[in-house]
């Protein structure tokens, strides 16, 4: 216990405001932030090289947040004081837990999002590879969950890929906004020490700083945007999960999910329950709940730091870990998914038939009612086959195998381009972080 002055000795009261348990998720990031702060104090001449070295060594040794502290920041500072002695107390200068936690959260979210973006690229690749195998595999499409028009499985998979790649782009741009440093902004108005905030930002691999110190210390809007986009991704994935449950059900039976993804019943041995997709569908809802919880905590808070912000922290990682686990499961699923050969309902050719009549000169509404009449009196037959129906589609984004081939090529190019921009971005971050290591290495030589 280092900061507490108001003196409650009641465990229940202390525990109520402590973030020790949830701080484990950001332990490594908090240490990195402290290292950058110590280096900056040294570069400013506030502390000697020897003190900087002693403190950095103590920071690196810090592994455990003991109970009884308010949070990781207090525990770390106390650890430094114990290891280094009074000189260690310099770390409290020009710094607040407010700017340190805000910085650590952004660092952690950056890592999480980079991992998710990588995973999503792999998932996109799996889905596109599967699409390549199924360019002419007939497949049903639905509106209102009723059979609509014939399509191909590749066409469905291209839909899946586009849902993911659109989210990918938005998540990447949220990352770029998020990757700005709050460090050096103190508790709310900065400090009288001339910290170079841009240099601190560089050392931690940020793209720049959150300029205003009120915003830097107390805004969580970029964090919320990040999980909002992840939740939106989960919404799309959860709809796809629902499709897969439906299409693989033996009532419908167009898809067979890999054995790794289904589970039987303890009572009914014939069952192949699509359990992973059921969980995914539920987890989509959980992410909406997580997002709603953080939004509800955030809404109406006065600007400037409030402890309510601390209570939002654990929710961010709940969301990112759900997303990561979901992507893993989907990769396995799309690798092993199979289409079951099964006749499509030929009434789904009714639109093609009406369009054929219309393209031969009959106003569409008239053609539509003629075909409808035939369908209603069970006399509908079409001159067009299911295969031809798919080939007749003439617009971009449709299942026509020739058009789809083009779309597939474009999707692969987009995938390569995205993968390159992610690599470039990661390398940029790594090269910036290298600067912190150079100064740290120099400091570490002291006294050797
Ligand atoms: N543990 C807090 C958090 O995670 C940081 C502490 C800020 N506390 C304070 N009294 N200003 O947000």
What does this structure look like?
- By secondary structure, the chain is mainly α.
- It folds into three domains: 12-93, Fumarase C, Chain B, domain 1, CATH 1.10.275; 99-109 and 122-136 and 150-342, Up-down Bundle (Fumarase C, Chain A, domain 2); 346-405, no CATH class.
- Helix content is 64%, strand content 5%.
- It has 16 helices and six strands.
- It has helices spanning 11-17, 20-23, 27-43, 49-61, 72-84, 97-133, 153-178, 197-203, 213-218, 221-248, 275-298, 308-336, 350-359, 364-376, 386-392, 401-444; strands at residues 138-143, 146-152, 180-181, 208-209, 255-256, 338-339.
- The strands form three sheets. The protein has a two-stranded antiparallel ribbon.
- Strand 3, helix 8 and strand 4 form a beta-alpha-beta unit.
- The radius of gyration is 29 Å and the shape is elongated.
- The chain binds arginine.
- Arginine is lined by residues 19, 71, 97-98, 101, 305, 309-310, 313.
- Arginine binds at residues 19, 71, 97-98, 101, 305, 309-310, 313.
């Amino acid at each position: 216990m280092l900061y507490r002055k108001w003196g409650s000795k009641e465990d229940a009261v202390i525990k109520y405001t402590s973030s020790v348990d949830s701080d484990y998720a950001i332990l490594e990031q908090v240490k990195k932030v402290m290292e950058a702060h110590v280096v900056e104090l040294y570069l400013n001449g506030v502390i000697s090289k020897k003190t900087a070295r002693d403190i950095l060594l103590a920071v690196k040794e810090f592994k455990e947040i003991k109970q009884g502290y308010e949070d990781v920041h207090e525990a770390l500072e106390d650890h430094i004081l114990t290891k280094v002695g009074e000189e260690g107390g310099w770390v409290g200068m020009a710094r607040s837990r407010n700017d340190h936690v805000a910085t650590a959260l952004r660092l952690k979210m950056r890592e999480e999002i980079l991992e998710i973006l990588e995973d999503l690229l792999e998932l996109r690749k799996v889905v596109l590879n599967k699409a390549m195998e199924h360019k002419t595999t007939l497949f049903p499409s639905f509106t209102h969950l009723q059979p609509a028009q014939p399509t191909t499985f590749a066409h469905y998979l291209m839909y899946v890929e586009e849902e993911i790649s659109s989210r990918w782009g938005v998540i990447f741009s949220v990352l770029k906004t998020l990757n700005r440093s709050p460090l050096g902004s103190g508790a709310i108005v900065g400090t009288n020490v001339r910290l170079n905030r841009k240099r601190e930002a560089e050392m931690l691999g940020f793209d720049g700083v959150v300029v205003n110190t009120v915003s830097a210390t107390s805004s969580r809007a970029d964090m919320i945007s990040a999980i909002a986009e992840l939740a939106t991704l989960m919404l799309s994935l959860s709809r796809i999960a629902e499709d897969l449950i439906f299409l693989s059900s033996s009532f419908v039976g167009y898809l067979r999910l890999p054995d790794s993804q289904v589970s039987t019943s303890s009572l009914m041995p014939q069952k192949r329950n699509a359990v992973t997709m059921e969980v995914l569908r539920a987890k989509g809802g959980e992410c909406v709940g997580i997002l709603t919880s953080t939004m509800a905590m955030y809404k109406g808070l006065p600007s400037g730091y409030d402890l309510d912000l601390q209570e939002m922290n654990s929710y961010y990682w709940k969301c990112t870990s759900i997303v990561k686990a979901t992507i893993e499961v989907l990769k396995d699923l799309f690798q092993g998914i199979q289409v079951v050969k099964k006749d499509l309902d030929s009434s789904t050719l009714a639109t093609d038939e009406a369009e054929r009549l219309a393209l031969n000169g009959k106003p569409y509404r008239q053609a539509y009612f003629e075909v409808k009449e035939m369908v209603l009196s069970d006399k509908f037959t079409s001159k067009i086959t299911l295969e031809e129906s798919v080939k007749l589609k003439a617009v971009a984004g449709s299942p026509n195998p020739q058009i789809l081939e083009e779309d597939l090529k474009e999707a692969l190019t987009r995938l390569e381009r995205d993968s390159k921009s992610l690599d470039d971005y990661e390398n940029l971050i790594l090269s910036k972080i290298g600067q912190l290591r150079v100064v740290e290495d120099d400091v570490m030589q002291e006294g050797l």
